[in-house]
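Fold this: Transcriptional regulator
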Amino acid sequence: MSKQDPFFSEPKVHSQEANMAALAAAMSDVSRMKILCALMDGRAWTATELSAVADISPSTASSHLARLMKANVVTCLSQGRHRYFRLYSSDIALLLESMMNITFQPNNPARSKIPKELLKARTCYDHLAGDVAVRLYNCLISNHWLESDGSDLTLQGKEKFLKLGITVNAKTKRKKCCPCLDWSERTFHLGGYLGASILEFLENNGWIERVPGYREVIITPKGRQELKRHFSISI
């Protein structure tokens, strides 16, 4: 059969299946997965910091980061003489969160070893996750501030958020808002652009404080008061 034959077709070198396999291969290492989980806090880390988290040498961490960058899982930001690494996109963060959902067993004894602060409130890349985030999502639904499928704010919700000072309109290619399955609570918290806006608002207004080097966030006394006042969330 010749290549001119209409039924002849050469195999695609870069098929979707091949790209999926390459992505899986790039992530198929415990140390690389530790690095990626650390980057789920949404911030940029140095190779040295990531080597400490993964308990490997800085040179080994650099090798792993090069592999992750080649697969477009991690990106590098240069600032002066320093290089910082972060997740390539929110899609990678969503993939990691989905993997956590699949691998986490609610009844596993290992759950008791997870810090309570991490279960209560943490970052899921650029939005809030954990018990507090799930309760916030449920509040938005029950008060009809968020559509029942979590796809968009209602008119009342937009008024509520604008009154608080949370940005609800912006030119972005990502989803405005969407339900994100919480791996520890096994139900939804709010993701998308709106989820990121809420996290930014909470931090900028002193309702939460980040724990440097970790995904946990602390609900401040002011945050406890304001969350109860505006969203009926008692902590």
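The chain has a mean pLDDT of 87. The CA atoms of residues 74 and 87 lie 4 Å apart.
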